UniProtKB/TrEMBL annotation, chains A, B:
The gene is yybR. InterPro entries: HTH_HxlR, WH-like_DNA-bd_sf, WH_DNA-bd_sf. This is Putative HTH-type transcriptional regulator YybR. Pfam families: HxlR. Residues 1-26 are annotated as: Disordered.
DNA sequence: CTGAATCCCTAACGATACTG
DNA sequence: CAGTATCGTTAGGGATTCAG
């Protein structure tokens, strides 16, 4: 199972030559993507759009806690990256439909792998965090 | 290839029942993990430690641009999550060795899938971004 | 060598109000 | 309905300094 250096061909090696890229402003694509999808809402939006196209307020209602501002920014970012398509229908109450592009849809697969890992390991992680904070409290208390 | 709703069993569906979890403070494990590994340095550290154990300053030199502060915080976070193990050797110049735990090593696999995707799609994403900013400039200029 | 502590800046985020 | 504009708060992150 160990993916350290035997099992996995590791495309990460390709992305991280030797000392780590990050020359100055040019980050490696992996980091770039991680920072994009690591924000607070992008994954939720992508996952919802993976089910079917959504309209703006539909997403707004579907993602509890998101503000219009952040929903707009998230969608704009995904659109700029070519992961989401935005279709405007000039109807009388104007409506806008968002959907994944083909490239956006392919993101669901690696995302699923990571989600799988997250779900599987979340209990262990949570337990580890609790143990750590308990240990920290002990140090404070004596 | 479409992973929209036919090909992939989508563990995301498990994580996102219908309207999206996020009751109030309790986020879904996927979002939680994404925010953890989506920060600026975690992935780089995990990838390096995936090759072999590293000492503190070795990591510091290996990851160009990281500050001691952030390296420490990143390692502490990973340690608290049970993904990284910290071993202190009480030698005369004290040395500390960091390595992936077994659970940490399993993270390399889904990370590779995502890295694969990132590397493969990075050109398209970059092109899309350029096209978008060019379009924005056109609106401003004309 | 391996950090912890402090200060400061910026980007991200959220709430609210306003517009086509 | 689908946004934009503005403002205030907070969290992430960097530089520097100090300590075991």
């Amino acid at each position: 199972m160990s993916a350290t250096n035997t099992g996995v061909p590791s495309p990460l090696d390709t992305a991280l030559p030797t000392p780590v890229p990050s020359g100055e402003h040019e980050q490696c694509p992996v980091t770039d993507v991680l920072r994009r999808i690591g924000d607070k809402w992008t994954v939720l939006v992508v996952v919802l759009l993976g089910q079917r196209p959504y309209r703006f307020n539909e997403l707004h209602r579907g993602i509890e806690g998101i503000s219009q501002r952040m929903l707009t920014r998230t969608l704009r970012g995904l659109e700029a990256d070519g992961l989401v398509r935005r279709e405007v229908f000039a109807t009388v109450p104007p409506s806008v439909e968002y959907s994944l592009t083909p490239m956006g849809a392919t993101l669901l697969e690696p995302l699923s792998a990571l989600a799988d890992w997250a779900i599987e390991n979340q209990p262990a992680i949570a337990a580890s965090r609790r143990a750590t904070s308990a240990r920290t409290n002990n140090l404070s208390a004596g």
